[in-house]
Amino acid sequence: MSLDPALAQRILEAVDAGFDAQIELTRKLVSYDTTRGNEHAAQDWVFRQYRDRGLAMERFAMDEAAIARHPGGSAFSETHSKTPIVVGIHRPREETGRSLILQGHLDVVPTGPVDMWARPPFSAEVEDGWLHGRGAIDMKSGHVSMIAILDALRALNLQPAATVYVQSVVEEESTGNGALAAHLRGYQADAVLIPESMQEVLVRAGVGVMWFQVQVRGIPVHVREMGAGSNAIDAAWRIVGALRELEAQWNEAAASDPLFGHIDHPLNLNIGKIAGGDWASSVPAWCTVDCRISYLPGKSANEAEAEIRACVEALTRADRFLSNNPPKLVVNGFHTEGFVQEPGTEAEAILAAAHESVFGEPLRTEVTPAYLDARVYALYDRMTTLCYGPAGDGIHGVDERADLESVRRCTKAMALFVAEWCGVETVEG
Question: Last residue of some domain: 336, 358, 381?
Answer without folding.
Answer: 336
